[in-house]
Design brief:
The complex is a heterotrimer of chains A (about 375), B (about 425) and C (about 70).
Chain A (H helix, E strand, L loop, with lengths): L16 H16 L3 H9 L3 H25 L5 H9 L1 H8 L1 H24 L6 H17 L2 H26 L5 H4 L8 H14 L5 H4 L9 H32 L5 H8 L1 E2 L3 E2 L2 H31 L8 H15 L3 H33 L7
Antiparallel strand pairs in A: 1-2
Chain B lengths: L1 H16 L11 E11 L6 E8 L4 H4 L13 E8 L2 H7 L7 E3 L5 E4 L1 H6 L2 H9 L8 E5 L3 H5 L9 H14 L8 H9 L4 E10 L1 H13 L11 E11 L2 E6 L1 H11 L6 E6 L10 E19 L2 E16 L10 H30 L6 H8 L1 H7 L3 H4 L4 E12 L15
Parallel strand pairs in B: 1-4, 1-5, 5-6, 6-7, 12-13
Antiparallel strand pairs in B: 1-2, 2-3, 7-8, 8-9, 10-11, 11-12
Chain C lengths: L1 H22 L2 H22 L5 H16 L2
The chains are: A mainly alpha (about 375), B alpha/beta (about 425), C mainly alpha (about 70).
Amino acid sequence: MAGKKGDWMPEKGIINTKQFVWLLFIMISAFATMQLPGMLIMQAGRDAWLSILGAWLLDVMLALVYAYMGIRFPGENLVQYSITILGKYLGRLVGILFPLFFLLVCTIVLRGSAQLVNIVFLPRTPLNVILVTSYLVSALIARKGLEAIARMTELLGPLYLLSIITLSFLVLPAFHMSRLLPQFDNGVTPFLTGAPLILTNFGVCIIMAMYIPLCNRPENGFLAKFSAVSMGALVVCLVTALSVGIFGIEDAQYMSSPGIQLAKMINFSNYIERVEMIWLLFLVGSTIVASSSLIWAFGQGIAQITGLKTYKPLIYPGALISLALGILSFPSSLQHTNFYHYTFPIVAAFVEVGLELLLFAVALILHKRGTA
Amino acid sequence: MRKLVLIMVCLSIALLLTGCWDYKEVDRLATVMAIGVDRVPGSEIILLTVQIASTQGNGSNKQTGGQRGDGGPAYTVMNSEGKSLSEAIRNLGAQSTRRILISHCKLIVIGEGLAKTGIGEIVDDLKRDRQFRRTDRILTTDKTAKEILEKDIALEQVPARGLDLIMQNFETAGPVLPVNCNDFFVRLNEDPHVSSTPFAQLQDIDKEVTRQLEKAVGRPLDSEGKPKTLTIAKTAIFKDQRMVGVLNEEDTRAHRWLMDSPKGSSITLTYTPKAQPNEEKGEIQLDIIDGKTTIMPQISENGITMNIDMRAKVSLHETGSADVNVRDAQKIEQIQQQAEEAMKRQLEHTIDTAQKELKSDYVGFSENLHNSFPVDWKQVKDQWDNIFPTVNYHVSCEVEILNTSIISNPTLRSEPEE
Amino acid sequence: MTVLMMFTALAIGLAEGLPLKKKGQRRELVVMTTLLAMTILLAVGHYLALPSPLVLLERWLEPVGKAIFK
């Protein structure tokens, strides 16, 4: 029976630790640099960048749990070990929540990036066309398997990191330290509520539990996650701190994407300007690759729950469900933003922290271990 | 079958790749270089003036020859009106054969009528419209924006480009603090809600020079009258989205010292020699090469005191008719001291104007107070408008002469004949 | 939109389903068809003005989110 044996896996590809790092980095940064900084600034004001550091710490602690579970159940991903821990029926009920969550994240990411392209660059193009195109590309990548996705991230990840660092240097002349000061102006509450908001976004890299069994060195899971989330936190931190230092909190909090506005602010010595298109290229590329790995995780998870030999036929139907959700659930960009800001963190916290800690606790109490 | 489906999918992707919804042909675009916004006080209508660069280069016109050999004007001015800024922009479509493209706009000119009645309603569009950039520069005028945008600027074909170049020059040197939309908005948002923009005027410099010369030579000058010249030498102060006043040239300079840095500016002072009465008085000009202004608030039982400390490293640019031995260390000391006093007087005058006349904190007091004493700031925040005029301040300046340019002592001085 | 989605679902069903049927992978076929049926269900639901699952989720959880976040 499927799920009983630890070595059984619909995906045949193997990734190395370096690819693991870039996969997670793209996942975190594509998701968190698009709209999140604005919401975070709304939540935490000038302390936004500090709450990213707080979230980074929390996320590293969470990663310890995931990495430990990956080692305790060797060769099993989180869908499989939830079946191992909770049994055939309850385990499947809990296990299916993870792939569904990945699909939800995919819906939010791609809808967000399509919206951004639509609003900022192609206002006359229908949103659905941009959305369909993005889904086609990411489903195509996902169907090629994890190795294809990993190779793409290996290329895009360093470029994206470099582009954000370059962007930061280029907008530095417009930065005013006095707009970022004073810290802790309204006590520590903004900082404390900001941290969970961003944690739920960083937490998307629970997808690492899907990669660990496919990594050639599963024991490096924590190390990979640590480097990825540190780079991701750096990137989001840069974007957030620069947005506050340039636009001030009053304006930055209502921007639909502070990152793009930062790229539009580049005017280096009246010479380098209007380069936001280049940055958008990397951003959209990253979101598409990130969502392809989310669709892949969905297909993989569902295939394991239902005990299929291959996950590939599920990729296009999965992408189609996500597309349908993306088009039908949000009549306007406002609904998307509200969903992302208020509903998503609750769902994410439940799945990322709640479910995983539950599995962890049950595994410890019942002394369940991986078989392989 | 499978191949057929794949081919179909590829073909449909190819259709999506053309981007046929948002194509823009360059020859079908009207590139707006600057926009000017006016409003007649008491009326709701926004009057818009846009300056559009002509895409017909001068080179191509050479072939046609004849009457348009000069290439014609390099720009066109269009006007429209509407209840809001975006409506006025859309109404331009009624007269333009080309699609209006604002992405390349570099400058926003606000006419006096609008500035005085409040710019609140255009600010939202400037922030929301994807075509405007927050790096666009902003300018206020005592005339209408229409007059400013219709004015030719010497040496430049498109006046908007000329105005932009003037502002670019101000970034490195000059008395006026250039402001882009972002800085303007952020200052209006932040607590004292006071912001500033450069202030453009049309002045008849040519006529003034002619008049004075005619008076001197006692006959009409054989010179052709020139149109008025556009000058940017003052600063408009906005408070709560309304223009509350204009700083004169001297205060503008000190405003820049306080809000930005003294670097790139200059000081002119009347040198009065001490001890040796045989030395001449004279105007000395110093160029500020490097400098820094810090405002340190201090809270004591007497209230809030602002300690303004300004340091400037200068180069001696001109000694005029002053007979001063600059190789004498004592003399240099004296010049430095007098420059310090002149700067201090200027700063005090500017702060007094802010406190007493305009009652708006454009000198950066509240920003520094907020950053240094966040807790105390919360208590005074709501009554800051009342507290600001009573804030004590103490100015200290330090001037250091680094060099005397390419000569040291003045030699041949022209004695003014009385 | 509804028709378009149903058509796409059908197309994917044919493109992926026929090879599966040839290989005799019945289980895969059933799961895939279920997923496609869910899409069609979503599309029809939208046509009948039923709220999408995300909207239901939002109705349920948004008050919680609003209580925690600004």
